[in-house]
Amino acid sequence: MKFRSMNSNFLTVSSWTLASRVLGFVRDITMAALLGTGPMAEAFLIAFSLPNLFRRFFAEGALNMAFVPLFTKKLNNGKETAHLFANETFVMLGTILLFLTILAQLFMPFLVFAMANGFWGDERFDQATDLGRITFSYIFFISLAALISGILNVKGKFMVAAAAPIVLNVMLIASMALALYLDVEISLALAIAVPISGIMQLILVWFAAKNIGFKLTLKLPRLTPDVKKLMIIAMPAALAGGVVQINLLVGRQIASGTEGAIAWLSYADRLYQLPLGVVGIAVGIVLLPELSRRLTANDQIGAQKAFNKSTEFALNLTIPASIALIIIPSELITTLFQRGAFDQNDTNYTAMALAIYGIGLPAFVLQKVLQPIYFAREDTKTPFKYALISMAINAIIAIGLEPRIGFMSAAIATSIAGWSMLILLWVGARKFKTAIRFDTVVYKKILIILCSSIIMGFCIFIAKNYFEFLFNHSMMKYLGLLIIISIGLLTYFFSKFVLAFLFLK
Length: 505
What we know:
Layout: H1 3-35, H2 39-76, H3 79-106, H4 108-115, H5 123-135, H6 138-154, H7 158-163, H8 166-182, H9 186-211, H10 225-241, H11 243-255, H12 261-296, H13 300-327, H14 329-337, H15 344-375, H16 381-405, H17 408-429, H18 440-466, H19 476-503
């Protein structure tokens, strides 16, 4: 794959991810207006987080990080060998997920308690249990869809896999509209829409794979040597890849003791997940098969160039986004969420959490750049060890600070744990030598990005104070946010242009 093509793939995945996240905001804005941060909102958020948590392990963790390198090697040995391996994995994964789904139905109260023990004894617990039984089957469909998406990504077919998540947000928005029309409980409609969207995503990527000659069929599962090897590699990869979610789980436990806190953290999480998803996920999806291909061919220089380009791409959008989240969190939350059942108090707490998550954003994104360095070499044990350390740091800080500062300790712990994980990954990756070296030009580009972001931050800080009066009006706040964002974008890209002209001649 040429590096120009790599850039194109970054943009393809980023664009579709951005479209999905924008629709996700429409979904969250609608939910905030209709449900606020009340019991039904928190019950659905916990119910939805259950399959989402497992999705991060099975789909984005084990499959994306363990399956892709192995499948890439198999593909080098011939399409038939790769097809057989993919089909065996598909059947085995489906069998495991089916048993997991059945067990979850039986033990759903225990899962809800594990997610939010603060719900115990009030109406939120029963509501979350009922909704969780409906939403959990989503994990079955979306994980199988993720496996097929991995096949498409290795084959360089990124568009359909990147576009598929849009289905979830479209279905959730449609379910709320239908619930209002039929006068039924909104949280119930949302829960039903979740597994339906999973089925639709699976169908979409299945047909896309079929069109490139990878038709996956059902048969009896077999623990072949290849599948066994995948499982051995996948188990630590699942934890390493889902460390952020585990840290968020600790946060939800702490937050569940304060009414409304889970919703505050969830809405803040959704907002910082926009740049994380657009940049971090795009980098991880494109970089892993690229590194696997080049390392399989023993192309160390090509692997280094892919790493450099991924780092530059990640920082180019992440650093300014991080600074913006830190400087204008209140303006963002006021404009996007404050309406209907979502009041000023909700805005204040959500904005505080968002600013803290913004501090950790660069770390979360850069993890997506460094982890493929390990996974492309089938090294999942090292990130696993780092994940354990990171989780310990998160738990100690979150639990230790909670008596002093309350639920906000969860957000602080998540960001600190994120930076800890990044430092560990960077130090550990030094053993790979050439692969993580930056050339002189990349160092200059990183410095330019940092300087341009600081200039941008200074400008939006001034703009925020100057146009503060606009945010006191329900309609003018949209204009205020547009002005601030426009000033930020103009100053950032103009600063980059000038600095690049001066230092990259």
